[in-house]
Amino acid sequence: MSHNAFYTKNLSVYYGEKQAVRKVSMEFPNREVVALIGPSGCGKSTFLRSLNRMNDLIPAARIEGEVWIGGDNICDPNTDVVRLRQRIGMVWQRANPFHKSIYENVAFGARYHGTRNRKELAALVEQCLRKTALWDEVKDRLHQSALALSGGQQQRLCIARSLAVRPSILLMDEPASALDPVSTAKIEELIAELKKDYSIVIVTHNMQQAARISDKTAFFFLGDLIEYDDTQKMFTNPTRKSTDDYISGRFG
Amino acid sequence: MRAKTIDRIATGVIVAVAVLIMAVLASLIGYLLFRGLPHISWHFLTSFPQAIKAGGGIGPQLFNSIFLLVLTMIITIPLGLGAGIYMSEYAKRGPITNFIRLVVEVLSSFPSIVVGLFGLLVIVNTFNLGYSLLSGALALTVFNLPMMVRLTEQSLRSVPQEQKEAGLALGMSRWKTITSVMLPVALPSIVTGTVLAAGRVFGEAAALLFTAGMSSPRLDFTDWNPLHPTSPLNPMRPAETLAVHIWKINSEGLAPDAGEIAAGASAVLVITILLFNLGARWFGRVLYRKLTASK
């Protein structure tokens, strides 16, 4: 398994009595994009959020099974979630930059995790903003509020923010679904670029998007992982009939 | 057509109510200022009160009010913020938390004279702090804390969940996320709440009668050592505040110009509260801008 960035084993998530994810075992290869698709309520977002223990915030949520990342089972109650989340970046459907300046949004997490030298920090901020193709757009107003940026810029800033704490994995929960086509295209280009350095898991409702950007695709339905294979195969010749039905738009 | 008529009537009623409230408020403040302003002078604001002669001022009372406010806020703000953060972010949902919340609500609607008596029995007598500014500040804390706790809790709860998740997902501790991500967002409403709480301190008389006392020692405004009994900064001395002074001279004042003094003091009280409000809001805005880089 050493070539794998991480994998889950029989991962189940419950909200109270309701089981939202059923015994999902998946391997995520290093530096590849894995798309999670499926109709609303199929458990894909819940699954994604259990990969960095974000479901801890929901009082009724309970996890069973294992998630192995770099040799640690992060579902172990003794896991240091603070350290864990530093290794895993996350991006949400709605851009949620901090109510701070553009510079601070990126620098804040890095400073907290130990980059205190001003020059180093400034270089890191520039590097992260360049990686997300935002530098040229914002370099003259780094110290203005991030909330004044457009939706697409805010979303790229959120990606830059998560890169600044040097994660190895990026989780994206429908990162482009609230954006216009041009901004969406930029995010997709960005994902293709980021793939060189990070393992990416992306939840998406947009079938074309999954086909365009991902190396592997997983189809979830009613909490079950129905099929997981190379994107090429999933979209041209899926094994399961429900996958075919969903991808071709016959339900969901 | 019918819907339009109803809409027009409703609008009319709402506007009328708003105008009525504004009129009451404006006439109240106008009357206070009209009666009080002519009496306000530098001399009036800085000199000592006179028991029998005319021409007394309200210097010590004004100072006491402001000093008491500062003392109360020094105690209230950290406690209120801490408890509010606990209630909104750390307390587990359940009967105990709900009970605490209920107690806080009941406490905030306590009659102030009861708080005063409580202060007399517990703070002044049992803890033997005597009639003092500190006793007054503690009594007012009892009075103010519930409001501060509730407002902090509500302000933090109204911060979007995504902000909190963003902080935690970056690998920040819960405490760091609360203090550096959520509190700045919640700041404007917390400042508003603090200003409201502080305004109550300024106008409060009943809770202070038995705690801070109804008299001041002959203050020596050249002695700023807080340990000296006649120093204005000594928190262990009794202190009559402006609101208490107004009540006292109105009910038992012997000076021939007691009426004018009460009117002038009332006007000063209103103006000070107004200035304090504006000042606190300005400070809150500056702080918010600094923390959030917004315009």
UniProtKB/TrEMBL annotation, chain A:
Annotated ranges, domain ABC transporter: 6-247
UniProt keyword annotations, A-Z: ATP-binding, Nucleotide-binding, Transport
One example of a Gene Ontology biological process annotation: phosphate ion transmembrane transport
Claim: Endoplasmic reticulum is one of the keywords in the record: no
One MF term in the entry's GO annotations: ATP binding
Any one GO CC term of the record: membrane
Record carries keyword Transport: yes
InterPro entries in UniProt: AAA+_ATPase, ABC_transporter-like_ATP-bd, ABC_transporter-like_CS, P-loop_NTPase, PstB-like
The protein's name in its UniProt record: Phosphate ABC transporter ATP-binding protein
Protein source organism: Cohnella lubricantis
Automatic annotation (TrEMBL), chain B:
Keywords: Cell membrane, Membrane, Transmembrane, Transmembrane helix, Transport
Coiled coil location: none
Pfam families: BPD_transp_1
InterPro entries (UniProt xref): MetI-like (IPR000515), MetI-like_sf (IPR035906), Phosphate_PstA (IPR005672)
Membrane-crossing residue ranges in chain numbering: 12-34, 66-87, 99-123, 129-149, 181-202, 261-280
GO molecular function: phosphate transmembrane transporter activity
Any Gene Ontology CC annotation: plasma membrane
Membrane-topology annotation of the record: Multi-pass membrane protein
Record-annotated ABC transmembrane type-1 domain positions: 62-279
Main location: membrane
Subcellular location: Cell membrane
An individual GO BP term: phosphate ion transmembrane transport
Family: Belongs to the binding-protein-dependent transport system permease family. CysTW subfamily.
Name of the protein: Phosphate transport system permease protein PstA
Natural source organism: Cohnella lubricantis
